[in-house]
Write a structure and sequence with these properties.
single chain; four-stranded antiparallel β-sheet; binds zinc ion; two-stranded antiparallel sheet; 2 helices; alpha+beta; 25% strand
Length: 106
């Protein structure tokens, strides 16, 4: 699923509903979503300052001396270019129903 698909589905739903994520259909659980976080394929957060595409350090604490990318200049991975967006759970999980996986979505 792409971000745009989710935007399309959410646009028809109650904007005041609590956003939750259901996961692990073999043992269904849900938890509240606390953030939509831009990230890398390796599930590392990309924050406002961006991430070095060589050493994956956040650019606000990037060490230009230590980074392997210093020779050719550092490419910065920004949230706008993020290959993935993670819906981040609040950590307090609850049992869910398998019916969530049998629905049609929206
Ligand atoms: Zn670097």
């Amino acid at each position: 699923m792409k971000v745009q698909d989710l935007i399309d589905q959410l646009s028809d739903l109650n904007p005041e509903a609590e956003l939750r994520i259901a996961y692990q259909p073999s043992w269904p659980m849900w938890e509240s979503v606390t953030a939509a976080q831009a990230g890398t394929e390796e599930a590392q957060a990309i924050n406002e300052d961006g991430l070095c595409s060589q050493c994956f350090a956040s650019m606000d604490e990037h060490d230009d001396e230590e980074c392997d990318g210093r020779e050719e200049g550092v490419d910065v991975l920004t949230a706008e270019d993020a290959p993935a967006v993670y819906l981040v759970g609040g950590g307090s999980n609850h049992y869910a129903s398998k019916s969530l996986w049998e629905g049609d979505g929206w």
